[in-house]
Amino acid sequence: MIGELVAAGDGTVHIRQDGDRGRPVVLLLHGFSGSVHWFDRVTPLLAERYHVVRLDLRGHGHTGGHTGLDARSQARTVAAALDAIGVTDVVAAGHSFGADVAIALAEESRHVGKIVVIGQAPDYSFATFPPGNGLLALPVLGTLAHRLATPSAVRLGVRFGFARGFAFNRAFDRPDQAVLDHAAMSPAMARTVIVERRRLLAARPLDEQARAVGLPVAAILGRRDRFYDCEKTAARWAAIGAKVDVIEDSGHSPILERPERVAELVQDFVAG
């Protein structure tokens, strides 16, 4: 099901809204190769108390596009989309690359009152990525690899974002959702996240950006994250005064692995 397509910048953005629109707003921002559907499990739980807004970032889902893919450009597009639907004050929750966008949105606009980082370290200094990941960032070969990727190869890559043993068929309502999201994503996103993002975060890590913003920050992490070392990530976020919660039996994507716990932690943070 497609939500609204709203004008934002030089294109349109696909937005879904759930819950009472008179209540506080929680904005959900997905990560690399994701879509609004990565929050299908969390949204109904949050919509009982909040107005939940989620959208497809540039280069993803029904928003599409091949430019303006870095976090700061994405944040400007998100700000324009929020203006288009009349939303002015949000708790911005970003999963993985979505955390970069949430923090950039707080810097770029006055829309954000609190920030929730889900499954994301401040930079790549202790990151581990699946073998062959860098291939996707190559100018020509990466585009070809993206277009020729088989469903089984896509599922294998997505599984790295879950704790070992997590039942993949429990992740989405549609068994092929991850494959559809990968196919809809711009091939240019790979270089944006794998190469350019590494450089940008090395120069100015997310914890440094969040400290400069000066807003309340919560970090929700998975103990069994295979992308980032959980202990080091938790220590970095705690060092800037963030509220840190670790979900013991989750990997990099607690929004899919433990949606009930994520919703509970977000509610506690919003209320607090």
Automatic annotation (TrEMBL):
A Pfam match: Abhydrolase_6
Entry-linked SUPFAM superfamilies: alpha/beta-Hydrolases (SSF53474)
AB hydrolase-1 domain mapped to chain residues: 26-264
InterPro entries according to UniProt: AB_hydrolase_1, AB_hydrolase_fold, AB_hydrolase_sf, Epox_hydrolase-like
Gene3D superfamilies: alpha/beta hydrolase (3.40.50.1820)
Domain of life (superkingdom): Bacteria
The name this protein goes by in its record: AB hydrolase-1 domain-containing protein
Source organism of this protein record: Amycolatopsis minnesotensis
